[in-house]
Write a structure and sequence with these properties.
The chain is mainly beta. It has two helices and six strands; from the N terminus they run E-E-E-E-E-E-H-H.
Length: 111
């Protein structure tokens, strides 16, 4: 998978700034299989996870996709595990090739 320019909006010194790096999206909140970037519940957070070219993991969390969020950088999957909701972590592992994606049969829809 080719690298993308990852852009994460944060508050830096009182101003909104896009922090950028080369990497690939693992969870971006726009996937078609459900909404893995959204965690329902108190506060309703949006989560994004990306892997850098240097194999570090960047986790961005915000309440509003158009407002600055917070970034946490992890050196490993095991370091990230306790801080990320289970469904976000599992989806990131599948996208990253750590876990195999489930395979389902296809059937035509009669409409």
């Amino acid at each position: 998978m080719p690298d993308d320019v990852i852009k994460l909006l944060v508050n830096d010194g009182g101003r909104a700034v896009w922090k950028t790096f080369q990497g690939r999206w693992l969870v971006s909140g726009s996937e078609t299989m459900g909404t893995p970037g959204i965690l329902p519940g108190k506060g309703m957070f949006l989560w994004k996870v990306a892997e850098s070219k240097g194999n570090k993991l960047a986790v961005w969390r915000a309440k509003d996709p158009d407002e600055p969020g917070e970034i946490t950088i992890y050196d490993s999957w095991s370091a990230m595990r306790p801080d990320v909701p289970e469904h976000i972590f599992t989806y990131a592992q599948r996208t990253g090739g750590i876990l195999e994606r489930p395979q389902y049969p296809e059937e035509p829809l009669k409409i």
